[in-house]
Amino acid sequence: EVQLVESGGGLVQPGGSLRLSCVASGFTVSTNYMNWVRQAPGKGLEWVSVIYSGGGSTYYADSVKGRFSISRDNSKNTLNLQMNSLRPEDTAVYYCVRSVDIYTVTRYFDLWGRGTLVTVSS
Amino acid sequence: SYELTQPLSVSVALGQTARITCGGNNIGSKNVHWYQQKPGQAPVLVIYRDTNRPSGIPERFSGSNSGNTATLTISRAQAGDEADYSCQVWDSRVVFGGGTKLTVL
């Protein structure tokens, strides 16, 4: 079965760190564009980061640039998100998402995990 | 920065047709994608590149895009269609609309 399963969410104090992981089944992470998308409680969706297939170029939303780092472990077919210097406004459900990218034309998200909740609070 | 505007809520009678709009400057020149999200669940892609349905999505779901408005149409609405629907485009970055809550009466 093709699926994504996230883990690693939880409660963390402002300024703290957390590492999210996402295990993929039924397809290979390294040959796909993989993203993190988040959703704050009662709010809309917000794209966070992407890692490209192949060479693995990475990109981030301005709101997390310099604080978050996306990576993948090909041997474990896993996507990761290292989150540092966390802020209360980072509180959200974080989804691991596969995307279809058509160069300079569009990107859409065709496979979503169930999400993991990150709460940043003292 | 590019913005997408969706109505907060749309209501439809059971069995009737629901139309959810997504407004943006010259959105007709972009590819629009639509996601359905039921409470407590992850989003699901229901329409991609304006008019295309992924496998497993009923034919009742259709999309159109022209001028400054893209529209998701749900024909013969069912109780199981109650959900939040979000549009999304690419404008040198990913842009999501704020989402529309569909209520089936």
Topology of helices and strands:
The complex is a heterodimer of chains A (122) and B (105).
Chain A: E1 3-7, E2 10-12, E3 18-25, E4 33-39, E5 45-51, E6 58-60, E7 68-73, E8 78-83, E9 92-102, E10 106-112, E11 116-120
Parallel strand pairs in A: 2-11
Antiparallel strand pairs in A: 1-3, 3-8, 4-5, 4-9, 5-6, 7-8, 9-10, 9-11
Chain B: E1 9-12, E2 18-23, E3 33-37, E4 44-47, E5 61-66, E6 69-74, E7 83-90, E8 94-96, E9 100-104
Parallel strand pairs in B: 1-9
Antiparallel strand pairs in B: 2-6, 3-4, 3-7, 5-6, 7-8, 7-9
Q: Keywords for this structure?
A:
heterodimer, A: 122 residues, mainly beta, seven-stranded mixed sheet, four-stranded antiparallel sheet, 56% strand, globular, B: 105 residues, six-stranded mixed sheet, three-stranded antiparallel sheet, 9 strands, 45% strand
Provide a descriptive summary of the structure in words.
- The complex is a heterodimer of chains A (122) and B (105).
- Helices cover 0% and strands 56% of the residues of chain A.
- Chain A is mainly beta and 122 residues long.
- In chain A, the strands form two sheets. In chain A, strands 2, 4, 5, 6, 9, 10 and 11 form a seven-stranded mixed β-sheet that branches. Chain A has a four-stranded antiparallel β-sheet with strand order 1-3-8-7, with no helix packed on it.
- Chain A is globular, with a radius of gyration of 14 Å.
- The mean pLDDT of chain A is 96.
- With 105 residues, chain B is mainly β.
- Chain B is 0% helix and 45% strand.
- In chain B, strands 1, 3, 4, 7, 8 and 9 form a six-stranded mixed β-sheet that branches. A three-stranded antiparallel β-sheet of chain B has the order 2-6-5, with no helix packed on it.
- The radius of gyration of chain B is 13 Å and the shape is globular.
- The termini of chain B are far apart.
- The chains are: A mainly beta (122), B mainly beta (105).
- Chain A binds chain B through residues 44-47, 61, 95, 100, 102, 105-110, 112-115, and chain B through 30-31, 33, 35, 41-45, 48-49, 54, 86, 88-90, 93-94, 96-99.
